Amino acid sequence: MTGGSVRGPGTPGADVPVHVELRTTDVEEARAFCRKLYYDPLRIEPVGDPGRFDFRADVVELGPITVGEVGYGTDIRISSGGLETAYHVLAPLTGMLRSRHRGTVVLADPTRAVVYRPTGDIELEWPGTCRLLSVKVERTALERELDAALDQRVVSPLPLGASFDVADGPGRTWVALVRLLLAELRGPDGLASQPRMAARWRDMVVSGLALTVEHPYGEEPAGLQGPYRPRTVKRALDVMHAEPWRSYTTRDLASVAGVGIRVLQDGFRQHVGMSPMTYLRRLRLDGVHAELSRTDPGGVSVSEVAYRWGFTHLGRFAGAYRERFGVPPSATLRGRA
User: What sections of the chain are H helices per DSSP?
Assistant: First the structure.
């Protein structure tokens, strides 16, 4: 058994990286380690051969981020309440992880990472063959970063997508960046171990995640849209965010923006990445999802919530909801039980 070791004079939360590693066959020691570095309460239960339990974690804390490689050696089940203070990404390096969060089930593997928002219970089925990259980002750090990339205030918690592709595109680059940072910070003499450089790497990880993960502020990652949007587009966005349940038409939104329909549509495609009505539908779906996730199943029905958010055709709503979240709306509501 190898106990935790800390390298460097800094403390968690500073710009000086703090490196901690642990290898143990003791379940309680592994639980204590994870609760201290990640979340408490956090329930970890082996469901595979207990004799094969072999917890290995190599973790670096750097200001608002905690990055590590973690594996258990045997099949385990993990459950946790809302993360509250952080967003979290798990990206398997080997094997497959089954995740359930806010009514959505994601099968994460080396091609797809799973994303957790600060609210909603989490359940993980983690096979012994799965070793993964774990990235915890403080809630305020990610929200500030995304807010800075847009010309509008974002909601909190961010309505992020449940997963993203890491086999190609921005996701692959972001995972490579995180792995390189972790490798650099493990060594005592790497360039990233210097406080000024470590702070820059830290900011790259946070900003890279903000530009990679899916959010309702645009179909394309925020960084590809440019930090500023025309005033006409901003006017339409402000109206939709103020009263998303209203039965707007594209003509209504163009009138608010003071331009023609075609000009508004072209502006949205260029600066938001989708049409005005597609954006409005996504905004409403995320509102329904958030309300169903936090509502007592006995206190409201799916149809009530859908109507409240402007959906009048329940069949089309249910299909759009399943397409976006991977489950029917009733599953999200029951997931609260």
Answer: 27-37, 139-149, 169-186, 195-212, 231-242, 250-257, 261-271, 276-294, 302-308, 314-325, 329-334
How many C-beta atoms surround the C-beta of residue 267 within 10 A?
21
The label of the residue with tokens 């594209």 reads: 250
Say which CATH architecture domain 2-222 belongs to: Sandwich (2.60)
Determine contact, residues 82/303, Cβ cutoff 8 Å.
no
- Boundaries of every domain in the chain: 2-222, 229-334
Q: What is the CATH number of domain 229-334?
A: 1.10.10.60
DSSP 155: P
Question: Is the pLDDT score of 149 beyond 70?
Answer: no
Tokens of 41: 């309460």
Tell me if the pTM is above 0.85.
no
Helices and strands, number each (H, E), in the chain: 11, 13
Q: What digits encode the pLDDT tens for the residues 91-114?
A: 999 999 999 988 888 899 999 999
